[in-house]
Design brief:
Elements lengths: L20 E6 L2 E5 L4 E6 L4 E4 L7 H8 L6 E5 L5 H4 L10 E5 H10 L9 E3 L2 E6 L2 E6 L11 E4 L4 E3 L12 H5 L3 H12 L5 E3 L9 H23 L3 H10 L6 H24 L6 H18 L1
Parallel strand pairs: 4-5, 5-6, 6-7, 11-12
Antiparallel strand pairs: 1-2, 2-3, 3-4, 8-9, 9-10, 10-11
Helix pairs in contact: 5-6, 6-8, 6-9, 7-8, 8-9
């Protein structure tokens, strides 16, 4: 049985008849979700800027925008290159300006995927996008979840978007949400908190976040780092050799390694789950995976 979900996981209800929910964040900025993926869009008086296009929302991105404005879509921003967040971008009209970080652009050129049109405008470190009455600040602060994953900041609305790093109210997807850089993923929490924001959009799950959500997830991973270090320092090589031999693997190096590292991971997970099971959703589901990733990172880096 999975553990009951804590109150931190509760989000607004999506109208199943429509298939999406739009929340007005003020001054032309909107948050859109179908309950699992998220989009941000901004009306400017001269057109709509859309950030990301998850295929799971698909045509409802167009429908959601049309429900609040008759402005045309003129700009699309890719948070990063992954298909699950931008693989619906083929629905946008021809001629829109598509913006991404240089590494995302290069990756998409190599993929040549019609569902992820190649950006028409690209930047290396920072870009200020001004359209009509609105401004968005785009910043690249290094590899975290992926190369090219950017911070999208709406200063007037005090809203920040960074995808696949923070999962408000929940433990992240396995292995630090498949982060390409463990150090970058952990440091991203500090980078987020350096912005002045009231609303945080993480790209996943059923609600937006607050500063407290970022601080809570940072504390959670701090505990994992500490527990993994403790478990690595207490590795029992003899017990692992003994168990491998008992299971017919006395000459099987990988069997020994798996038993040894699984024991480290389990020790870490047991300690962290006991503390966090009532604070974040699905801690019992994915903490083991995070412990494996962190403990292995400590062993090799």
């Amino acid at each position: 049985m999975f553990a009951p979900l804590p109150s931190s996981t509760v989000g607004p209800m999506v109208d199943q008849a429509k298939g999406f929910l739009v929340e007005d964040l003020g001054d032309g900025l909107y948050w859109l979700t179908e309950g699992i993926y998220q989009v941000m869009f901004l009306t400017t008086g001269e057109g709509v800027i859309v950030v990301d296009a998850p295929p799971s929302i698909g045509q409802n991105i167009i429908n959601a925008i049309a429900s609040v404005t008759d402005e045309p879509i003129t700009h699309v921003i890719y948070s990063h290159s992954h298909n699950d967040h931008i693989g619906g971008a083929g629905i946008f009209p021809a001629g829109v300006t598509i913006i991404a970080q240089d590494l995302t652009t290069e990756h998409l050129k190599n993929k040549n995927d019609p569902n992820r049109p190649i950006p028409t405008q690209s930047f290396a470190e920072s870009m200020t996008l001004k359209v009509g009455s609105q401004t968005l600040q785009l910043d690249y602060r290094g590899v975290n979840h992926s190369a090219g994953n950017i911070f999208i900041y709406a200063p007037a609305q005090k809203t920040l978007m960074l995808v696949d790093v923070i999962f408000p109210g929940w433990t992240p997807f396995p292995e630090l949400a498949l982060a390409q850089s463990v150090d970058g993923f952990l440091e991203a929490h500090n980078q987020i908190l350096a912005y002045d924001f009231d609303h945080f959009i993480g790209g996943h799950i059923n609600r937006m976040g607050t500063r407290q959500d970022i601080e809570t997830q940072q504390e959670y991973f701090g505990d994992i780092v500490q527990a993994a270090g403790k478990a690595n320092g207490a590795m029992d090589f003899g017990a692992a050799f003994g168990e491998a031999a008992e299971r017919g693997g006395h000459n099987n190096t990988w069997a020994f390694v798996k038993i040894l590292f699984d024991a480290v991971t389990q020790q870490c997970a047991d300690e962290v789950e006991a503390k966090w099971i009532d604070r974040l959703g699905a801690v019992d589901v994915f903490t083991f995976d995070h412990c494996w990733t962190i403990s292995e990172h400590q062993r090799i880096d």
